Structure formats: C-alpha cells, structure tokens
C-alpha cells in the first residue's frame, strides 16, 4: 500500500552537525533520510560517500534496530553517479536501505535492479528532467520506487519544475501501488502540485532543514499527499 513519506535531503543540512540535524528532522516526523551521493561526473558537483553514510548509520539506526533508542530512519540513497553498478555492494555495507540509480547512467537497468535486490534492499530508478517517462514503463513492475526529478540534478535549493508533473501522473495511473518520489524544490508552496499528480514520496531539503518549525512543514506535506491518495482510493 502506498503511503505519504517525507524524506528530507541531507544536502541541505549543516554537515558539521549532521547527526544532530538528522535527529531533529526525524523527531519532527521525517520517515526517511534522502542521501544525495554525487560524483562530479554524472552531475557537476561532489557531495559525500560511504564513510559519511556509515558514520551516519551509527547515529541513526535502521528502523527495525531495537537495540538502540536513538532516532531511527530509512536511508534512501540517491546515486547521482556514473556506473552505479560499481557502488551497490559498498552502499549496502555502509547502511543503505534503498539504492536509487539514474536510468541515464546505466546500460542495463533491469540487471542493476536485480543486483540491488539480491542484497535485500529496495531498488529505485530516477529520471532527469530531459528523460521521457516511458523509459520507466517496462521497468516499473520490477521497481520499488520511481523518482521523477523536479530539478536538474546536482544542487539543492533550485526551483521546482511544474512541467514534470505529467510524468508523475502517467506513472501513478500506470502503477497505482508504486512508490513515486519527487525531488527538487519541494516545500509548502509546491507540494500541492506534486500531491495532485500522485507523488507519495517527497524529498525536501531546503524547506525542511531551514524551517523554523520542520514538524509543521512535514505535517503539511504529508497531509497534502494523504488527501490525494485518499481521493484516488489508494489509502485506507
Ligand atoms: O537531488 C537533489 C539535487 O540533485 C536534492 O535532493 C534536491 O535538490 C533537494 O533539495 P531542495 O529540496 O533543496 O531542492
């Protein structure tokens, strides 16, 4: 069953106080942490890699880890890298719960989905704004999530591209039970468009990490998604 999920992008956090910032947004109601991995090749920016994810995993345990009382979260790793197949094993080891690769970065998306799932984590595929949505139609039944980028990948704090919404709508109509994520420029002002189109997994960096009251922003976004899923008969 699809449900509303808010995934703050740690790209907008203060990296010197990463664990603290993550605990704050989890306590404010975030379900996932969205971890933007950029290699300076697939996108024109470099962010973070396995050592940071492994350290963060110690401070933020898995949701099913009952040995710790620390705030827990699902690690949603968005791999904006060339040759994503090279990094699956390393990211599984450092604590990824989901590995999202870019359709544009691999020659064999289905083989990559199978490789990711063979490690018992979730597999997702992202498309850049210039990539047509139909490339995901064949792959859809094999995916745990599809990500429609609503900015050109590479940097946080960009303007939401409303013209990506028909892609979201097409995916929701074709795959009613698939997690559909949107990423880039999401906040209280843009969430109505994404929710109306049928997105249920909302990545929000700037709008959550810089909010005075992150809990209010997260609740607002979840309510918008929830209302739309309900109107589609997808939420019980
Ligand atoms: O993938 C990304 C950039 O490539 C970021 O996750 C995205 O831009 C979110 O940041 P913001 O909410 O600040 O726009």
UniProtKB/TrEMBL annotation:
E.C. number: 5.1.3.1
Listed CDD domains: RPE
Record: residues binding substrate: 9, 78, 154-157, 185, 205-206
Ribosomal protein is among the record's keywords: no
InterPro entries assigned: Aldolase_TIM (IPR013785), Ribul_P_3_epim (IPR026019), Ribul_P_3_epim-like (IPR000056), RibuloseP-bd_barrel (IPR011060)
GO annotation (BP), single: pentose-phosphate shunt
Alphabetized GO MF terms: D-ribulose-phosphate 3-epimerase activity; metal ion binding
Statement: the UniProt record of this protein carries the keyword Magnesium: no
NCBIfam families: PRK05581.1-4, rpe
Annotated protein name in UniProt: Ribulose-phosphate 3-epimerase
Organism: Lachancea nothofagi CBS 11611
Taxonomic lineage from the root: Eukaryota, Fungi, Dikarya, Ascomycota, Saccharomycotina
């Amino acid at each position: 069953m699809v449900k509303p999920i808010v995934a703050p992008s740690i790209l907008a956090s203060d990296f010197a106080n990463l664990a603290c910032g993550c605990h704050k947004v989890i306590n404010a109601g975030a379900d996932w942490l969205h971890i933007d991995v950029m290699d300076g090749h697939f996108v024109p920016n470099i962010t973070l890699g396995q050592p940071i994810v492994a350290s963060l995993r110690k401070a933020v345990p898995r949701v099913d880890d009952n040995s710790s009382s620390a705030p827990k979260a699902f690690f949603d790793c968005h791999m904006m890298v060339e040759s994503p197949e090279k990094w699956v094993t390393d990211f599984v080891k450092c604590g990824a719960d989901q590995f999202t690769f870019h359709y544009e970065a691999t020659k064999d998306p289905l083989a990559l989905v199978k490789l990711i799932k063979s490690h018992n984590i979730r597999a997702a595929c992202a498309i850049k704004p210039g990539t047509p949505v139909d490339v995901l139609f064949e792959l859809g039944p094999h995916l745990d999530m599809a990500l429609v980028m609503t900015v050109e990948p590479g940097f946080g704090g960009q303007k939401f591209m409303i013209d990506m919404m028909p892609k979201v709508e097409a995916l929701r109509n074709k795959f009613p039970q698939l997690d559909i994520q949107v990423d880039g420029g999401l906040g209280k002002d843009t969430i109505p468009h994404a929710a109306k189109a049928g997105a249920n997994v909302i990545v929000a960096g700037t709008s959550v990490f810089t909010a005075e009251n992150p809990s209010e922003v997260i609740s607002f976004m979840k309510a918008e998604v929830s209302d739309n899923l309900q109107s589609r008969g997808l939420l019980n």
